[in-house]
């Protein structure tokens, strides 16, 4: 499912206009992004949690040329699936 499919599903489920449901989805995504940018943690019970992990600088290798390069430190979002979601997905197998 992509963002436009999510907007469409919300519009159909709650009998909203496409524009209104798009606005709701954008507000949710913007709020989640803002919290992660501030370094916060997002936990949605039964679904999972989002955190930002810090990665230190290290020496890497360019896969094309084999040249050793310096990789700068970075922060990346990380998702950890919740127990309830994991069990629901696993039960479908």
From TrEMBL:
Molecular function GO labels: DNA binding; structural constituent of chromatin
Keywords of this entry: DNA-binding
PANTHER family: DNA-BINDING PROTEIN HU, INTEGRATION HOST FACTOR SUBUNIT BETA
The keyword DNA-binding is annotated on this UniProt entry: yes
InterPro entries associated with the record: Hist_DNA-bd (IPR000119), IHF-like_DNA-bd_dom_sf (IPR010992)
Protein name: DNA-binding protein
UniProt similarity note: Belongs to the bacterial histone-like protein family.
CC annotations in GO: cytosol
Pfam family, any one: Bac_DNA_binding
Organism: Desulfuromonas soudanensis
């Amino acid at each position: 499912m992509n963002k436009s499919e999510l907007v469409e599903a919300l519009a159909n489920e709650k009998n909203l206009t496409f524009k209104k449901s798009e606005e709701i989805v954008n507000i949710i995504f913007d709020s989640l992004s803002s919290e992660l940018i501030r370094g916060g943690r997002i936990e949605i019970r039964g679904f999972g949690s989002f955190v930002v992990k810090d990665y230190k600088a290290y020496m890497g290798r360019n896969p094309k040329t084999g040249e050793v390069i310096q990789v700068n430190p970075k922060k990346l979002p990380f998702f950890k699936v919740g127990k309830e979601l994991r069990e629901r997905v696993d039960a479908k197998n």
